Model the fold of this input.
Amino acid sequence: MKKTLFDKVWDSHVVHSIEDGPDVLFIDRHMIHEVTSPVAFLGLKQRGISVLYPERTFATADHNTPTINQHLPVKDPLSANQLKALEENSKAHGISYWGLGHEKNGIVHVVGPEYGITQPGATIVCGDSHTSTHGAFGAIAFGIGTSEVEMVLATQCIMQPKPKKMRININGQLSAAVTPKDVALFIISKLTTSGATGYFVEYAGEVFENMTMEGRMTVCNLSIEMGARGGMIAPDKKTFEYIQGREFTPKEAAWEKAMAYWDTLSTDEGAVFDKELTFDGSTIEPMITYGTNPGMGMGIANDIPLAAAVEGGVATYKKSLQYMDFHEGDAMLGKPIDFVFVGSCTNGRIEDFRAFASIVKGRKKADHVTAWLVPGSHKVETAIKEEGILDILHDSGFTLREPGCSACLAMNEDKIPPGKYAVSTSNRNFEGRQGPGARTLLASPLVAAAAAVTGKVTDPRELMELETA
Amino acid sequence: MAYDKFDTLTSTAVPLPIENVDTDQIIPARFLKATERKGFGDNLFRDWRYRPDNSLKEDFPLNDSKYTGKILVGGKNFGSGSSREHAAWAVYDYGFRCVVSSFFADIFRGNCLNIGVLPVQVSPEFLEEIFKTIDADPKTELEVDLTEQTITNLSTGNQEKFEINHYKKDNMLNGFDDIDYLLNIKSDIKEFAKNTPL
Ligand code: SF4
Done:
């Protein structure tokens, strides 16, 4: 039988199939962080059992960690308590632990690939919905709840019905200033936030083939925002080059053996998907969101759609615009903004800071804009310094913070104040996501840079054209 | 953790006719800092229930004393966004045992089933009717029968079947959870792991 990439990886991890029920799926690698794991460890304790395969779980602290003065004790007692729980639980169970201040510390979905924990053909889970990021390497990766974290700790398995399969093909050349983030926001705007619920997505076509690994991670990361369990891209030469030699990837003979298997990881010609969609990459524009879910995005030069033209509930749509204090028919270009946030597991990798720097170079941060630039990990932070990007940022009036999730979910002090507008490279513009009352415009690092130097929503192509003119 | 058994539930319901209710609304991130599974109900829909100065928003359905019951009825695409199980805990801790909607986000649905909250997916028309009858009479009761997989609007007598897989249904009826099942097949899992290099 012809199999999809997803089938190949899923089927090879099924320990048991329950009739009219879920599959028991073996999990190769499990990542944990301080927020969704403490209750899982508590559950183990109450059942009197321990971690079955501690070497398959990796812990990093990221969700509620401060992004300045990380060498000082964490001020918020509740956050400190969670961090302490993660450290104690990891140590008690022999789990490798990259806590605050550790050189390998960073956002869970940034450090996984950096150290080769993420590999093609693997099953990877974490108590965070953006675990889908790791699908960029041809892994099946998805977010789980705390009960499932406990399951994986206890048994290295979870129980899930096999999702349906969707393929999204995008061919053609992307235009200038159109980044992987724009491709993802474009897809979500077409599918809505529930358009892929119940599906696992494979991304295929030239656009994804031409993308860097960082770009593929950005796209797979956002799969969850259209409701999909996860997204994946078949591994290729780029994938193998990226992972070779990293700490947790196989070496020598084991590498050769792994490569022989990884080479088989692509969808067979003629394999059937439950749903297949195709878009033309050349029609995608730099995107921005105007509402309170990631599906409410459009080309940056467009006007906010009229309520009458929107599918779904008009009341919900109007509530959303009201929260943003925007009006149907408004242009987004020129809208004043207050904050810029560059970071998160969506766009907090080195490539994103390179893109941001390419626009701010030789320009100055707009006076009224507060910019939070937060690298996804210490490794990214180091690269920013070594590549001279930090100097460019400083010359333009920006500073760099320390790694963590930061304003992506605003669990630490990095909260956008009520009513303020933030152009953010993160993944969710839900009400209050970046702080109570905060108003989020999701966009690429290029759009964020253009906003940071002009103080308003600006088409990055304008600034790029100036350079070439 | 094994949980309460679920068999039938007859109750009034609290309506929340909003679409795409995401888990950041169900429980905002700043309330995820506990290391125990307690007290999340207080912060269920925190920013929709309270103003920034902590005063009550009276017009929000959960604050409106005419709406009560163990069933929460939400608009389409309920529970999207973050995978935080805290959202399901908050729903449970507040006192709900069942959530009705015309569409659920995947992870939220799974999280609910894992902690003993029954997600019941109905047709958009049936949902609309529930909202209308509750609006006309907040004392409207819904009857959810897990064995029969039916939900009935007792005001109109209209009934629909809902889907749940056999395994999960059994778990809910008996108060079992997945870990109980997995621990029972641990030797198979260990055998499987031998052939699955790290
Ligand atoms: S950056 Fe945001 S989405 Fe990514 S892991 Fe952290 S909180 Fe989750």
About this structure: Chain B has a mean pLDDT of 94. Residues A 62-63, 107-109, 128, 130, 344-345, 405, 408-409, 426-427 surround iron/sulfur cluster (CB under 6 Å).
